[in-house]
Amino acid sequence: MNHWLHLPQLASQHGGALDHTLGLVHWLMLVLFLGWGGFFAYVLWRFRAKRHPAADHAGVKSHASTWLEGAVAVVEAILLIGFSIPLWADRVDRFPAPADATQVRVVAEQFAWNIHYPGPDGVFGRTDVKLVDTQSNPLGLDRDDPAGKDDVTTINQLHLPAGRPVLIQLTSKDVIHSFALQEMRVKQDVIPGVMTPVWFVPTVTTEEMRQRTGNPEFGYEISCAQLCGLGHYRMRGYVTIHTPEDFQKWMDEREAELKAEGSEDSVWK
Ligand SMILES: [Cu+2]
User: What distance lies between CA 195 and its chain's CA centroid?
Assistant: First the structure.
């Protein structure tokens, strides 16, 4: 079934189970569509006016449809209780420990994704709305806070290592956005004033996916899945999934840049 659904490529650990459930739901819908559609056509033929010139006020006496409806409800309950709820519980109730995960804060705004890494100390620096500068400091990060000195920030560039849980804290500066990573099967509304965690394990690096798809240009994207204003269509982020070594290399380069910048304007002391 999943082949026919033309789903995006799969690149996360939990995504397979989600696709499987999606496939089961579509099978049930196909059976219902054919079943009820066929029944409707049968009824039109069976109770045609030529054969029944006068209405039968007693109506149908068979209870077959009641049993059928009961059976459909049972199948739906199995899908819900047996598949969907355990999957959902895994997403929202079993978060990885922050120490075991790549931690990222993503702050959405019209129309960009601000990415914030805690740096080598693993602690996010203080942020303050008074420090926000749309050009130089969109996150309002306080570089004077000891925990904030090593924080790495980017705009629309999310880099992650494969094979390790990623724990993303989502919030928004203005309106409701939705953080969507199609290949990771991740979609989460981003609400101003609320930190919403979302987690997943990326399994396929960008490089591997380029080989798998035969498309050397392939790149993962963050798309905003909630109509959030006139520029919604261009609210696109870029995601690079690295091997753990390459991710570390990327992070080290950012740290080196940060130190170089810091020694220039003496923010890094
Ligand atoms: Cu948006």
Answer: 15
CA of 125 to the centre of ligand 1 (A): 25
- CA 218 to each of CA 138, 156, 213, 214: distance values in angstroms, whole numbers, following the listed order: 28, 17, 8, 9
User: In angstroms, what is the span from residue 180 Cα to ligand 1's centroid?
Assistant: 10
What is the pTM (predicted TM-score) of this model?
Answer: 0.86
Helix, coil or strand: residue 25: helix
If DSSP codes are grouped into helix, strand and coil, which group holds residue 119?
A: coil
Q: How far is the CA of 83 from the centre of ligand 1 (A)?
A: 30
Q: What token pair was written down for 231?
A: 């520029």
- Give the separation between CA 102 and CA 135, rounded to whole angstroms: 27
Ligand 1 centroid, distance to 236 Cα (angstroms): 9
Please check whether residue 251 is in contact with residue 152, taking contact to mean a CB–CB distance below 8 angstroms. Answer: yes
In this structure, are residues 224 and 234 in contact, taking their beta carbons and an 8 Å threshold? no
Would you write out the chain's pLDDT as a tens digit for each of its 269 residues?
777 888 999 999 999 999 999 999 999 999 999 999 999 999 899 888 888 888 878 877 888 888 989 999 999 999 999 999 999 998 898 899 988 999 999 999 999 999 999 999 999 999 999 999 888 899 999 999 999 889 999 999 999 999 999 999 999 999 999 999 999 999 999 999 999 999 999 999 999 999 999 999 999 999 999 999 999 999 999 999 999 999 999 999 999 998 888 765 544 43
CA proximity to 27, closest of 88, 72, 70, 66: 72
The residue type found at 243 is T
Residue 199 CA to ligand 1 centre (angstroms): 20
Pick from 217, 229, 4: which is nearest to 110 by CA? 229
Q: How far is the CA of 177 from the centre of ligand 1 (A)?
A: 4
Using the mean position of ligand 1's atoms as its centre, give its distance from the Cα of residue 131 in Å: 23
